Amino acid sequence: MKRHLPHVLGCAALALGAAAPARAQAQQAPAIDLPGAQARADATVKQMSADEKVILTHGIMPLPFLPGAKIPAQAIPGAGYVAGIPRLGVPALTETDASLGVAWVGGLRKDGATALPSGLAQAASWNPDLLYRGGAMIGAEARAKGFNVLLAGGVNLMRDPRNGRTFEYLAEDPLLSGELVGAAIAGIQSNHIISTIKHFALNGQETGRKYVDVKIAEGAARESDLLAFQIGIEKGQPGAVMCAYNRIDGAQACASDWALNTVLKGSWGYKGFVMSDWGAVPGVEAALHGLDQQSGAELDKALYFADVLKARAAGDKAYAARLDDMNRRVLTAIYAAGLDKNPAKPGGTIDLAAHAQVAEEVARQGIVLLKNNGALPLAKTVGSIAVIGGYADSGVLAGSGSSLVMGEGGPAATRSIGGDGPFAALMQQSYHRSAPLKAITALAPKATITFRDGRYIADAVEKARQAQVAIVFATEWRTEGADQPDLSLPDGQDALIAAVAQANPNTIVVLETGGPVLMPWLDKVAGVVEAWYPGARGGEAIASVLFGDTNPGGRLPVTFPASLDQLPRPKLDGADWVEPNFGGDPAPGKDQLHADYDIEGSDVGYRWFARKGLKPLFPFGFGLSYTSFAARDLKVSGLSASFTLANTGQRAGDDVGQVYLVRRNGAALQRLVGFKRLSLAPGASGSATVTFDPRLLADWKDGRWTMPAGDYGFALGRSATDLGPVVTVKLPARTWKD
């Protein structure tokens, strides 16, 4: 179907034209009649009584383990429920987490779902079309289970690699993050359900997440984290935006007049609604500051958006007008997505086999080969293999928190750190039932394969010494609600890897991590494979890469630092006095926690490393292959570029062309401005054209985008640190507002 630009629930069109060409997946999304949805919303609001106007403005968590829980019969166990208005034909909102699939919620629904790989794994594909497919898949499962709102679309940039939710998010770059999240959201909403984009905004750490106050200049925010959201909204057109827990320059993000009114609804012209994160509403005044819906009100200090809001609206014209607008926005999203005309009902059919294939394909495309001295791919005729560690006999690691997804039968193995509170199940270490050991055995049926769990290094070393190849599975678990204390592998795994590599020079390390980790043993091992949290079919995907059935084509969406000293904040803000209990409580007498993002400003990740002249352990955009590629013929004309990628090796494989702005009027800077993944047969070449979003060439100054006239230098790279010749073009000066 034809999709109309400018976008439907997002911003007004850029003065310079569309930021990027419409991708193939956009044609698959259902057409949305925004003017018609807004007109219907206006008509419905006029028919509402005073009582009805505070129905859509708040929701509950329909979970029986919450104290005093009163759950309507039509609610489905999940993240949230917002009652409908049957008299006016307005459906209830049934909400579930999250970006990686329909959340497990401790198994309350007695069903399972297909788990996509982690957000970082998806982003490592650098493939928007693949993320659209993944989004369409999890949206279909949500719909089949009766949900019509998916709390997906995590797009916060990785400002600190220790962030416990890094695994849920996508990248450290606004273009890559925005393009990918937009594609995923469009896929989700192709099922006539609403997707959110979250957590708006500058939600960079879990430590003290409900009171950490982020300091950042407006220009830096607009050029980085906010730009990722802006691009994602333009591309995906989510029906809802979920605001964050943290504070922004003193104001709670869910009550930030600047973020919600000035930027989102003002500058960007967003027409959907803003829902709170669960337990993130400071008071009824948040309504005037741009919040449209109080989610999971049981977790707040009070229910503000019901009787309290109704009373304010009865006596204050500002609240009355705001209340009408709140309802108008929620209804616009409902009508635009067709929730009323295409109701989601529990008991729908799910093609689990087909969905598992989608999850496996995402995992295969997102696995990144970080080191290979020729040991990989493994020959299927190998005589003996020692598989060590990582619960490789049971499954593959999953990140925890509200995004946790589990298939039929639940987790393969668990280790709980969540105590005995109502959300303890969200903070348990869980594994998907896709055992790498089984998949490896299937691909090397004649090999003698042994497994040791790695708890005893001497035992693991002995088995490694006896085998031709040793494969160590190393895990680094992350969860919502707690950050990592550092970037080491926990439980003595660094020592285990070093000892195994000393015993067997053909040691391959498979990393299942929620973000970057340090590798003190890197020079001792033969190969390193970053598999992230690889999802429902992760074991099969990992084995496929190890034995060469899949040629690894993933590229890092985040920088792996060589040490904590390279970070803008070597010491995590609040780590010394905040308790790690699902967001953290301050020590007695301490309630002020500040994060200074002005240190790096808009130079997040690889931009910071370039600015400071630092050499990372592995750079943004990096990834090896079993074949070789050449990138050439970069040509730039105006706001577009073309280039050629050639497979110069003996195996079919995928490569990602990455175009960077590296110089502007003689000043060095670095910004990803375009990318394209191509699949190439041996000896084949392919060309690609990318269109530059002009905001990536500009700075935000004095309330507008400013692009100075002069010489702009671009380079085609294999990573942020491996760049080809600079191509310089002259571009005219331009200024424009969003």
From TrEMBL:
Residues 1-26 form the signal peptide. It holds the Pfam family Glyco_hydro_3_C. Residues 655-720 form the Fibronectin type III-like domain. It comes from the Bacteria. InterPro entries: Cellulose_deg_GH3, Fn3-like, GH, Glyco_hydro_3_C, Glyco_hydro_3_C_sf, Glyco_hydro_3_N, Glyco_hydro_3_N_sf, Ig-like_fold. SMART domains: Fn3_like (SM01217). Keywords: Hydrolase, Signal. Belongs to the glycosyl hydrolase 3 family. PANTHER family: BETA-GLUCOSIDASE (PTHR42715). This is Beta-glucosidase. It comes from Novosphingobium pokkalii.
